[in-house]
Amino acid sequence: MHTASSEHAVELGRRLVDLLDRRNTLASTRAAEIDAIARSIDRAVHALDDAASSAELMRRACERVAELCSADKVVISRLDGDRIVPLASFSADPDTTPALPAEFDLPAGSPEEHALETNAVAVGSHVRAELREALGVNGFTVVPVVVDGIAAALLHVGTSLDGAGRHALEVFAEVLGGCFERVGLESRRDRQDALLREGVQRWTGDTDFDAVTVGSPDLASAGTEQDDADRRLLDPLTEREADVVRLILTGASNSTIAAELVITVDTVKSHVKHILRKLGATNRAELIAKYQSTTR
């Protein structure tokens, strides 16, 4: 501009002002889009908070993903090895209730495989025959749902999302994985508590337990003593180690514990080693004996 003629300099100045105005407009628009996405994610996440079961959580997740991604159709599936098993679907059309898709093998080189390998959103243009009725035929987006560090489910959305939409879906899937873990832990603890009492009964030979009626003072007292014993035993442990101990006390094997907690057998062995060291026991039998001594 310093070397331009006065007339040319004025024109360059106008162009510069125009570019600055466009940049500011784009920045404002982008900020508004980000704010809208953040509020949409917040609404979607709040809808998951009080889901009491995995089935309810999946139903709500499909509905909220459809709203979040402005999509008409959504399918959520669990992973069974290399099999994709659809569990719930959603259609924005109130007059349409698509049949749940049939399960199918994880296709090699597919967007699903890419999503699982990268733990990120992937977009596909060719919808598999099993999913066409539930998703449509005009492309789709898929993202894994990670539970306790393992991809446990897939969300299929019946539209091809752009960058902002993909990011919103990734954030939602991450939160959904945490919700599944919470619901799973709650139901797992209920099962473990029942198994724990059965295991203690078996190890101690307490045949009078079944004869105690529900709601009786004896049962209430026994429950309190049991809880106190649990706390004394489990206090030094992490939450996951406590889960492992509860299953050990039922007589569960390492493979059974691994399947119940959705972790590897090697991870179970590592937990058991730490548990024995923390509780001062040399083996499982001694650990069980220590527990029995706290209940007497």
UniProtKB/TrEMBL annotation:
Q: Which top-level group of life is the source organism from?
A: Bacteria
For this protein, the record's InterPro entries field holds:
GAF-like_dom_sf (IPR029016), Sig_transdc_resp-reg_C-effctor (IPR016032), Tscrpt_reg_LuxR_C (IPR000792), WH-like_DNA-bd_sf (IPR036388)
Q: Which SMART domains does this UniProt record tie to the protein?
A: HTH_LUXR
Q: Which UniProt keywords apply?
A: DNA-binding, Transcription, Transcription regulation
Ribonucleoprotein as UniProt keyword: no
Biological process GO terms, please? regulation of DNA-templated transcription
Pinpoint the HTH luxR-type domain residues: 230-295
A GO molecular function for this record? DNA binding
> What PROSITE patterns does UniProt report for this protein, alphabetically?
HTH_LUXR_1, HTH_LUXR_2
Any Pfam family the entry gives:
GerE
What PANTHER family does the record point to? DNA-BINDING TRANSCRIPTIONAL ACTIVATOR DEVR_DOSR
Protein name as annotated: Helix-turn-helix transcriptional regulator
